[in-house]
Structure formats: C-alpha cells, structure tokens
Amino acid sequence: MGRQSSSPLWRTALLWLLPLGLLSGCSLGVMANRMFTGDPTTPSHFKAMTGTDLTKGKDKVVVICSTPTSVEADLSTLNLDILDGVSRRLKIHGVEIVSPDKVARWIDENGGVVPDPTAMANAFDADYVAWIDLNTFSIREEHSPKLLRGRTQGFVRVFRVEQLSDEKIALAAFNSEFTSTYPAHQPVSENGRSALLFQKEYIDRICDELAEKFYDHRPKTSM
User: Fold this and answer.
1) At 38, is the pLDDT very low, low, confident or very high (cuts 50, 70, 90)?
2) What is the mean pLDDT of residues 204-216?
3) Widest distance between CA atoms in the chain
4) Confidence at residue 213, expressed as pLDDT on a 0 to 100 scale
5) How far apart are the C-alpha atoms of 16 and 122, rounded to whole Å?
6) Which helix (H) or strand (E) holds 50?
7) Tens digits of per-residue pLDDT, 161-194?
8) Residue 18: its pLDDT value, please?
9) Average of per-residue pLDDT values in the chain
C-alpha cells in the first residue's frame, strides 16, 4: 500500500491560524496572507507612466543631480550625496546604471556644472538620463533655528536617449514633481539630535524616496 504524502507546511500553518483568525477578527488573517504572499508593494511611478521596467536591467541609466547656488553655498556635497545615494539604491534593485564616480568626474572635468541631458547622452553609453533637479533644501524650521525639519522641493525628469544620425539626442519621457517634509507632523529639537546627524538621516530618506520612483517598493509609514 502506498505511503500517504504529508500536507505541505503552509497548509498546516493555515489550519492553525484559521481558528485564531475567527476568534480575534481579521488581523491574524492578514498576517497569514502576508506569510504566503509577502507585504503589499507600491508600483513604480516611472513604470506606471512609461510602461518600462528599469529593474529588468535591459536599459542603462545615467543619474545626475543639480542643486541651486544658494543650496551649494551651505552644503556643497549635496548633489554628489544624492547622485551616489540614488545610484546605489537603483543598482541594488537591478537597474543598470553608469558609475556615479564616472559621472561626478566627468562633470568636474567639464566645469562642475550639470549640462543639458543631450550632452550627458553623448558622454555616456546610456539609454536613459535621470535628472534630479532640486530647487530647495533645508533642515531647519523657518523662524525657529533650534528646531529641525527637512524640506525639499524639485523635479525628477527622465529622458530617453535616441540615435539621430551621428548624434544621440535626449527626449523627454517622464516628469514628476518631488516634495518632501520630514518629520511630517512636527519638527524635532536640536538638543535631542545633532544637526549633522539629522542632515545625514534626511538625505538618506530623500534618496529612498527618489529612487523608489523607479522600482516597486513597500509603502512607508509617515513620521
């Protein structure tokens, strides 16, 4: 007589969780669903708007970041920090990128100013140019210099690179305004956290939010 196969592990777990879910409402049912399907994700804004999934690694992307002179005077490395942070996150999620070190070196060798996207398209063998253009950046609450709250506004513009005769040209493919306020509800005191530490934390958060425009991600809890 043949040996009866055992039930799969997930069925056993479900049999245990189902009675508990009936006793305590739907929360355990949600937990069971997450065990088998994972946490829900928010679709990539870029993929939703263009139909292109950059995480498949078929398209090479060059990331650039520009900041206004008023911001550079207070934080000269902000554009490089954003460039490096966003590029690293994209690479981790499967996007093929041009090395941020190569991009930074090329910009430095060409006057230190981010040129137009067509110039970047011809300088690098890339299929897309992702331009992060920050208009404002601050970490101090207005009229309250001892309180810390990050605020940023700008645009994320992506250009598709096309070959035209002997030259590459960058054509607009995606445009999204970017605004960030952190913490959302109220500022924090500098007495409890140094401005330098808060600044680093906020830049990391901006890099997360910018990079997540290009890949599916779990929704964040606002703070």
Assistant:
1) low
2) 95
3) 83
4) 96
5) 60
6) helix 45-50
7) 998 888 889 999 999 999 999 998 899 998 878 9
8) 47
9) 83
Cα→Cα distances 63→51, 93, 132, 134, Å: 19, 15, 8, 13
CA distance 156 to 131: 6
Is the predicted pLDDT of residue 154 greater than 80, yes or no? yes
45-211 is classed CATH 1.25.10: no
Per-residue DSSP letter, 55: G
User: Which two tokens mark 71?
Assistant: 């911001």
Delimit the CATH 3.40.50 region(s) of the chain.
45-211
For the chain, helix, strand, coil in percent to 5 are 40, 30, 30
Distance CA 49, CA 164 (A): 25
Amino acid at 194: S
Rounded distance between C-alpha atoms, residue 217 and residue 116, angstroms: 30
Report residue 89 as tokens: 């996150």
Which tokens sit at 67?
């900041």
Higher pLDDT, 28 or 163: 163
- 157 backbone φψ class: left, alpha, beta (φ>0; ψ -120 to 50): beta
206, 31 contact by CB (below 8 A): no
| Structure-block tokens of residue 29 | 């049912």
Measured between alpha carbons, how far is 58 from 154 in angstroms, rounded to an integer? 28
